[in-house]
From TrEMBL:
PROSITE patterns: ROK (PS01125)
Domain of life of the source: Bacteria
Entry similarity comment: Belongs to the ROK (NagC/XylR) family.
Organism, as annotated: Antiquaquibacter soli
Gene3D superfamilies, sorted: 3.30.420.40, Winged helix-like DNA-binding domain superfamily/Winged helix DNA-binding domain (1.10.10.10)
Annotated SUPFAM superfamilies: Actin-like ATPase domain, Winged helix' DNA-binding domain
Coiled coil: none
The protein's name in its UniProt record: ROK family transcriptional regulator
Amino acid sequence: MALRPTSRTDVNRSAILAHLGAHGPASRADLARVLNVSPALMTSLTKDLLAEGLLVELDHSPSQGGRPARMLGLASSAGRAIGVKVVADHVAFVEVGIEGTVRRSASEPFDASATTLLADLAVLLRRFIAGGSNEPLLGIGVGVPGSVDRQGNGLVDSAQLGWQQVPVGATLRREFSLPVLVENNVNALAVAERLYGVGRQHENFLVVTIGTGVGAGIVVDGVVLRGHGGGAGEIGHIPVLEDGPLCSCGNRGCLESLIGEAALVRRAREQAVIGGGSGMSALRAAADAGDSAASALFSEAGHLLGRALAGIVHTLDPEIVIVLGEGTAAWSHWSFGFEPALRSSLMPSRRAVPVAVETWADESWAQGAAAIVLATPFDSEGVAGDQGRLVRARLVEQSAPTGEPS
């Protein structure tokens, strides 16, 4: 996949809007320092944003003896986006402001295997949107565990959900007459990390998620790599054990079939570590209470993850690895196996690669989905297609002075 400087520019423009929305007016120098870009590039970026009517120049900041700096602010703080996380048994929603802050959230039961799944999803989404403010809605972002052809099309294949060519984007656009962007949920998290998280300080990083599934978001030169069909980063399907357990993808011995939540729970039940009707919360509680068998299951999973990630680090050479997902609630037990396996499997020159493990909430998946809406106004790669242009048009419209054409 070709990388172009305009792609990095797009992300930086979105990050400027996000930072000003979250923290208020700032000078160009402050923005350059916080977003880790050169002053010359920041001058160029903000010049474009001012010309497009998305930023305004405000009063000068107080001087400490030098030349006063001109402050920049958003032309309008209006605008919100909806993020949706879809998994097999429930769907989570968030409403975020233009700066990416979660304003409200909800979770509803959902059957991803139902014949009426798209109609059911639309009903739940309509109910959530109706409970929000009257502030302009820029668009809807949907994160799914699977491959998405393009964000603007939203045609989904997901082994985890049992979906083949499910037209999520087209259906929701027809139902709501709003821009709808659909993306692999880990790629969406990578976008959120690039805009708001640890990834804001790095051009090349790897987001790894553990929990129900195992996945990765790959960011190279500030751009999320999607691959030919939108399925890049499916590290959960790296073959690990020949003739191993059956995976949801239909193959045997994939990494996810060995260390995903279902695999850990199954083995814990087989070993009588937890009862037949118990799940991950019981397994984690057992490990927290000092059960050696429970701790060993997590440690073995960490060992396998560490060895697999060593190969990916060698391939991609990231500045940092960021671990996320519901599985991180038990990271203290995973880490016993993970750290030795990762470090010992890396070449000496790569052994110091930092690993950041972030705290997790279920709404983080949905926040990632909302982030793809907020990142699309400057989508020169065309991944978002017409939907990205519609989001940008709505954003510009909100920035136009009252009484003037937008």
